Amino acid sequence: MAPRKRGQSAGRHPGAEGAEPPLSERAQYLQREYKLLSEQLDACEERVDQVLQENAFLDSEALRLREENRLYASYVSARAQRCAHAIVRLDQQNRVDLTRVHWQRTELASLYHGRENGMRTQLLEMEARAAHMTQQVQELQPYKVSARATMGESGGGPGGLGARHTQALTCTAPRNCSWSSWPGSGPWSASSCICAWNTRSCSTV
Known about the structure:
The chain is mostly helical. It has three helices and no strands. It has helices at residues 25-154, 161-169, 190-199. The termini are far apart.
């Protein structure tokens, strides 16, 4: 702001000509006070201009900050909404995946239980078959011992029963002949086998 124009000095009278009369002490004091006040007024006016400029700058900055805050709030709101939607979608997807996993687990458990039951049944059948075979072997042990004893009593000479037994074992029965089909065949034994093969038609090899 331009400084104000000052008026004429208080000690000068308008229309006076020639040399100015000396000022009184009070007039000089008032003149000094006027000058001081004028300087202070000029400083205040400059300060007012500076404050007005600063206020204008602050107003523009406040406007800019309000616009930035509005944009940031809009961004934060949109981002929060997107995050909420993403959380809902992920929750729904997780629920679907969890349901599918539970269903697959149930299916696999049923499948493996079925296979386990089948394998357990097969194992039990094999164990029963092995026990039955063991029992049969144990039942045949006396016949084996009896056959060995018979072979030991008959001797090992060329004309003995051992040779005839060997010859009988090398015989070939007719194709339509079997031990079970011969009439009157009793339980099988080494001696009965020898008798059967020697008393029935055989051809030596």
